[in-house]
Amino acid sequence: MLYYALLFLVISFVAGLLGFRGIESGAATISKVFFFIFLLLAIGIALAAALGISLFA
């Protein structure tokens, strides 16, 4: 998930440098969504691990 967030962030930067504003804003929005999904999953797994809940058993 973090890989895709970084990928779309790079696409956003390149599109911004080349002047493609529509693609830049779209890729930045997708990057933010993927990053927040990654953040929620990481926090959820860390909380489950701290509480001793086995997610993969």
Give an overview of the whole structure.
This protein has helices at 2-18, 21-51. The relative contact order is 0.15. The mean pLDDT is 92. Helix content is 84%, strand content 0%. α1 runs antiparallel to α2 (21-51). The protein has 57 residues and is mainly α.
Secondary structure layout plus pairing:
Layout (H helix, E strand, L loop, with lengths): L1 H17 L2 H31 L6
Outline of the structure:
This protein has 57 residues and is mainly alpha-helical. It contains two helices and no strands.
How many whole angstroms does the radius of gyration measure?
16 Å
Treating each run of at least 4 consecutive H or I residues as one helix, how many helices? 2
Mean pLDDT: 92
**Shape annotation:** rod-shaped
N- and C-termini, Cα separation:
22 Å
Which residues sit in consecutive blocks of at least 5 with pLDDT less than 50?
A: none
Q: Structural class, from secondary structure content?
A: mainly alpha
Reported for the largest beta sheet, the result is:
none
Q: What is the domain tally? A: 1
- Secondary-structure element string: HH
Q: Give the number of DSSP strands.
A: 0
Proportion in helices: over 70%
Strand content: under 5%
Name its key features.
0% strand; single chain; 57 residues; mainly alpha; 2 helices
